[in-house]
Automatic annotation (TrEMBL):
It comes from the Bacteria. Keywords: Aminotransferase, Transferase. Residues 1-20 are annotated as: Disordered. This is Class I and II aminotransferase. Gene3D superfamilies: Aspartate Aminotransferase, domain 1 (3.90.1150.10). GO terms for molecular function: transaminase activity.
Length: 45
């Protein structure tokens, strides 16, 4: 995150932020299914 300050001093830099990445609905669905299956089976394999 230290390099974010450098962007403020660089002409023409486009600040995209240093926060959380975007959520991808397809991946959210995949993780939900995976975690539900793990919870129901009692296994994490």
């Amino acid at each position: 995150m230290e390099d974010l300050n450098d962007g403020l001093r660089t002409p023409g830099a486009i600040m995209l932020g240093g926060g959380n990445p975007a959520q991808i609905p397809e991946m959210q669905d995949y993780f939900q299914t995976l975690l539900t299956d793990m919870l129901e089976s009692g296994k994490a394999d």
